[in-house]
Amino acid sequence: MRASAFVFDLDGVIVDTAKYHYLAWKKLANELGFEFTKEQNELFKGVSRKRCLEILLDIGGITAAQEQFDRWMVEKNEDYLEYIEKMDASEILPDVPKVVGFLKDRNIPIALGSASKNARPILEKVKLLPSFDAIVDGNDVSKAKPDPEVFLIAAQKLNVAPENCVVFEDAVAGIQAANNADMISIGIGDAQILSEADYNFNDFTEISLAFLESLMSVQA
Ligand code: BG6
Ligand code: MG
Predict the structure, then answer these.
(1) Cα separations (Å) of 186 from 90, 109, 150?
(2) Contact, 154 vs 112, CB < 8 A?
């Protein structure tokens, strides 16, 4: 299938914000009297804020009334935003600008497809907002990855058929969402974890421009 548009996940693909999510969730866990490890944080990749808090409270064996639950969601996000506030273009992951620049030079449309409700401010901070032709984030979707909704809306906004879209993702749920959308999935990270992806790379430094060219010219 010939690729004519590209969709990027944000957290873990464009920027390494997982470390900030981790610090904010860990602070809340510690306040509530339990530990939260980096290994447990892996479960939070690609998962909505609400679902993350549900998992965190499960880990701590805590049940909460709705009001308290909502307050903790706000508290975690306020802590997370303090980290975001300090971000700049130096936090863009290696060779992401190379790939984005290559696609822009060829007038290939690109979209963001993220579960985060903070996607726009983060893209603004790292100065990538103007590069995207469409943004679909946690404010636009009703169904979380692995549901394909986020990527299907992105394809619609770019006016490209799903099967002609390529998705860059670092989360298992994200790769599944791309596959469920009938898109070409590229796993960024551990190939064993992201084994359902059509292609795997550890990071963007491993993605050659020739590979991108090949995706854009292959007819199947
Ligand atoms: C995803 C992250 O991109 O966004 C998750 O991988 C995060 O870890 C989710 O929980 C929601 O992010 P936010 O910024 O809306 O809390
Ligand atoms: Mg991600």
Answers:
(1) 24, 17, 16
(2) yes
Handedness of CA 159, 161, 145, 175 (dihedral sign): negative
* Protein residues placing their CB within 5 Å of the ion ligand 2: 9, 11-12, 170-171
Distances (CA, A) of 119 to 30, 84, 200: 26, 10, 24
Question: Which three-class secondary structure state does DSSP give residue 29?
Answer: helix
Cβ(52) to ligand 1 under 6 A? yes
Q: What pLDDT, in 10s, does the model give residues 192-202?
A: 999 999 999 99
Distance 117 CA to ligand 1 centre (A): 7
* Integer Cα distance of 170 and 197 in angstroms: 10
11 is catalytic: yes
**Tokens matching residue 11:** 């957290």
One-letter amino acid for residue 73 of the chain: M
Cβ distance 218 to 5 under 8 Å? no
- Nearest CA to 54 among 39, 68, 33? 68
Question: Token pair for residue 195?
Answer: 């084994």
Cβ–Cβ under 8 Å, residues 10 and 112: yes
pLDDT tens digit string along 139-163? 999 999 999 999 999 999 999 999 9
